[in-house]
Amino acid sequence: MKQSTVTMNQPIAAVISTMYGRDDLHYFRQSLDSMLGQSYPQEKLRLYLYVDGPVPELHERFLEQNAMHFYRIVRGEENRGLSYGLNQLIDCLEDESIVLRMDMDDLAHSSRVERQVAMLEANPRISLIGCNSWEIDESGGVVSQRDYPASPAAIREGIARGNPMLHPSYCMRRTLLTTHGMRYRELYLNEDLGFLFDVLERGLELANLQERLMYWRVTDKFFERRHFRRHFIEYRAYVQGIQAVHGLSTKQIYPLIRLVFRLLPNGFARHIYRSSLRNNFLRG
């Protein structure tokens, strides 16, 4: 395990993640290892896991063999979805002052927690930060790079065009969840987008650390989850969120453009998704 390079007065941080019955345990193992290999002091890094409903025997054995790595495992009797699971973990947090998101098919750079916590500590006005990332495929090979807007103003302005933060890179102050009462709304496959709009509506500031600290895995399943229900919920979340953050605005044209893109055939959408056209659109 890596030696810590931060001082012992660093805050206690919680990492919240979920497990589902269809999760790939190979990816899950890699993701867990990336958190266990953090340069942040392991005694100050607590992993919380919500098991969303029944899981196969193979997953049960995995949990039994790795239970010592988790500070707490919370189980649900039935599958209730991401927002419910994350909120359950939020409600059982203890004395942690920093909370990080992590999807258990992605990978974190070994300095992710250390660098993000340091940025929050140095910028008391920022409530939640993300970071830049590499996009990786099924085998872990780097496919592309993802850059996100750095400043609170750029994020607030850019959210109408597209999600300005990578959701598994979220690192937030606990006060966002206590003082401001933030929770995840039930927005099928758009929970994190809704979360950002809710933070911005409260007048709080977001930022992205301009370092690549995440390996975000995008597989064919990412594109297979494209269907009208998800697209309509996303469209409605954007329309309502833009109204809440910007009021009456010409920015409402962007959700419509996104909806048209979402309805394209998967092969064409995959090509555009990884092209400079998409990045140029998001940057404006």
From TrEMBL:
Top class in the EC scheme: transferase
Superkingdom as given in the UniProt entry: Bacteria
Stretches assigned to the Glycosyltransferase 2-like domain: 15-145
Keyword line: Glycosyltransferase, Transferase
Entry EC number(s): 2.4.-.-
Signal peptide (residue range): none
GO molecular function: hexosyltransferase activity
Name of this protein: Glycosyltransferase EpsE
